[in-house]
Structure formats: C-alpha cells, structure tokens
Design brief:
The protein is built from one helix and no strands. The chain is mainly α. The longest helix has 30 residues. Keywords: Membrane, Transmembrane, Transmembrane helix.
Length: 32
C-alpha cells in the first residue's frame, strides 16, 4: 500500500510541476 502511494507521488509530482509551469508560462505570454 505504501509502495503504491509513493509510486503515485513519484509519478504525479513532476506532472503537477510541469502543468503549473506550462500554465504560468501560458498566462505570462497571454499577459504580454
């Protein structure tokens, strides 16, 4: 169970950071 949770975290944390970076860069481009 703990291995499954850690696997999900390892997979999802980079995806969340990439999505946030993509969204912030997109809104930054739209802002200018």
């Amino acid at each position: 169970m703990l291995g499954l949770i850690s696997l999900i975290l390892i997979l999802f944390i980079p995806v969340i950071f990439i999505w946030l970076g993509y969204r912030s860069s997109k809104s930054f481009k739209d802002f200018h």
